[in-house]
Amino acid sequence: MSLNDDLPEYMLGLFGSSHMKYHMKSNPQSDPTLAELTEVAIRSLRRNEKGFFLFVEGGRIDHAHHDNLVELALDETLEMDKAVATATQLLSEDDSLIVVTADHAHVMTINGYSGRGNDILGPSRDLGRDSMPYMTLSYTNGPGFRPHVNGIRPDVTAEPNFRTLDWESHVDVPLGDETHGGDDVAVFARGPHHSMFTGLYEQSQLPHLMAYAACIGPGRHACVSAAHLPSAHFLIALLALFTSILLR
Questions:
Q1: Torsions phi, psi for 244 (to 5 deg)
Q2: Contact, 40 vs 15, CB < 8 A?
Q3: Rounded (10°) CA dihedral 119, 188, 229, 227
Q4: Spatial contact of 99 and 210, defined as CB atoms under 8 Å apart
Q5: Tens digits of per-residue pLDDT, 62-109?
Q6: CA 224 to CA 217: how far, in whole Å?
Q7: Do 162 and 93 fall within a single domain?
Q8: Nearest to 106 by CA among 154, 73, 151
Q9: pLDDT for the residue 8
């Protein structure tokens, strides 16, 4: 279906028997991007005069991190960023609330003091105390653990598949899957009542803030305010993983 086609009243898009392919491994002729899916959803839902609620998830970011596939994880984060940009272009800031957040962090981190311009996906310019290189980005745990030989870490940059999409970044603790992290995650909001999304608060507060702005559910609503826009459309975009190096 072309983005320029008239959209039917009801739609169901199934593009595979399991998860969508990673963007960097997808077929652009048959696999839609998250931004394209977001555009079709908004164009379809905004025809409702009473507004709408849309939930968008960049779930493959999480999958890539669990497998220590750092390049795929970062690329999927960029794809989520494009989806958010699409939403901001299609929806007015005057009557559309957009909220972007994460449900958890992961245990990826930046190592060392690499200089400006150093490849973020490559090794640091410095060596470890064992005279071996270490990656600028790595994980605390996960499947990418390499056994040490005589107390020395292996040189991961010499591996045959180094820097391929399926190359697992090195980790400290061997696990079958990388775990979630305990970091606080950021919340971004744009549109009506966006000023409520500030400060440090529990994640469970988010739906209450959105319900207040959208005038739905029990409790206090923004509808009692003269500044409330009754015809508002509401887009809630969930960023399934918020890495510690992007957008923070």
A1: -80, 0
A2: no
A3: -130
A4: yes
A5: 999 999 999 999 999 999 999 999 999 999 999 999 999 999 999 999
A6: 14
A7: no
A8: 73
A9: 83
Q: Are residues 53 and 86 in the same domain?
A: yes
Instruction: Name the nearest CA neighbour of 133 among 107, 108, 153.
Output: 153
Alpha helices by DSSP H, the chain: 34-45, 60-66, 70-90, 206-214
Domain termination residue (choose one: 174, 196, 230):
174
Residue 36 annotated as part of some ligand binding site: no
96 and 144 part of one domain: no
Average pLDDT, the chain: 87
Is the pLDDT assigned to residue 234 strictly greater than 60?
Answer: no
pTM equals: 0.87
193 labeled part of a ligand binding site: no
Same domain, 50 and 157: no
* Closest among 39, 23, 169 to 106, alpha carbons compared: 169
Q: Rounded mean pLDDT of 42-60?
A: 92
Q: Is 57 marked within a binding site?
A: yes
